[in-house]
Amino acid sequence: MKKSMMMLALIALTFSSCSKNETIAAATETTGTEAVGGGQEAVVDNDSAPDIVKLAVSNPDLSTLVKAVQAAGLATSLSNAGPFTVFAPTNEAFAKLPAGTLDDLMKPENVEKLNDILGHHTYVGVIKTDQLTDGQSLGMVDGTPISIKIVNGKPVVNGTVNIIASVPASNGIVHVVDSVILPN
């Protein structure tokens, strides 16, 4: 009886192993083909939680941010392991900027300025909303801190920028905000 149970287990393990290897080979083939010519952001993975870039791409209210991230060449960086906390301005937030500002920032000759502004929206590490405290200062990627104030029980960035929603990503968290956070 023990021998037949062992044989059945061995046969099941063999079939299971073959099936997994075929799945892995198929996944590797698909992912490898899809990712050619792109960085981490080009890897196709429909099973895992989306990374910060894929999360932003899937939200039409963040399309301006996605264009800015692409123009600044930061899509690969924000698709990597992280962890990152990104304060993501909505399209309406970008529309609040003075006329012509966004168009000017998106020009190739202004990629450094755009990079600084986007870096001012990115923190290395994960800070959830319940971890944001009154008087807290966060050092952002651009080297300039932002300040957190708690107003009516909710965190506000630099005294005026409200967090609309917070969404976890595979490589961090995205706090959707109602204004662009400009460095001082």
Automatic annotation (TrEMBL):
Signal peptide coordinates: 1-19
SUPFAM superfamilies tied to this protein: FAS1 domain (SSF82153)
Gene Ontology CC entries for this record: extracellular space
Keyword terms: Signal
Domain FAS1: 49-181
Presence of the UniProt keyword Signal in the record: yes
Domain of life: Bacteria
InterPro entries in alphabetical order: Adhesion/Biosynth-related, FAS1_dom_sf, FAS1_domain
Protein name stated in the entry: Immunogenic protein MPB70
Organism (species): Chryseobacterium salivictor
Record lineage: Bacteria, Pseudomonadati, Bacteroidota, Flavobacteriia, Flavobacteriales
